[in-house]
Amino acid sequence: MTDLEHYRILFSKCLAMRNFSTEDVMEKVQVPNSEYVSQIVGTKGCKIMKIISETNTKITTPKRHEESVFCVQGSPENVQCAVSEIEKEVDRIQSQQTIHKRSNKPMIEYRHPVRYRHIGLTIGKGGSTIQTIKRIANVEVDSPSILGTPEFKIVGDYESVLKAISYIEQNIAQKTASGLSSPFNIDLIREALTSVKPY
């Protein structure tokens, strides 16, 4: 059994408990290739299940060797939300690939923890602060979800990731009276980054 077939079984069990009305709509979302499908689905289907749960939609994932198209079913509003989340994932993957091509250096992925109360501060109004971090450090940053672990996933080469972490911590220190998100030691961060395997 392939990974995607395993995911489809998981989805079917989850979606069997959901009720859909005759007013539901269906929309297809084309993604570039099967590698995108795999990344959007996530390990053991964790990412696509999260989208399904948060948007209350039914999402059919393409099997291996099928056209790379997700079929989304639900109320018009929920379908648009799910489509938007899938498109965001596509943009994220493309951004990571662009960074990798520009860098020509080994890429690492590092999850930097912050306090819950500093998540919004780090993201900034309308995402302004996180966009600045991406631009200045030349990295891709995934922000934590509301109910998820308070960690920012940062992807880039070693120096770029270190630069992004430093910017996050400096921003928190400048804008709060309570200090940094955690005891911040640049040497410990460097040591942690060197232990991350590139891909």
UniProtKB/TrEMBL annotation:
Pfam family membership, one: KH_1
Ranges of residues in domain K Homology: 23-91, 106-173
Protein name according to UniProt: K Homology domain-containing protein
Keyword match Flavoprotein: no
Record PANTHER family: LD09246P1, RING FINGER AND KH DOMAIN CONTAINING PROTEIN 1
GO terms of molecular function: RNA binding
Sorted UniProt keywords: RNA-binding
InterPro entries named among the record's database cross-references: KH_dom, KH_dom_type_1, KH_dom_type_1_sf, MEX3
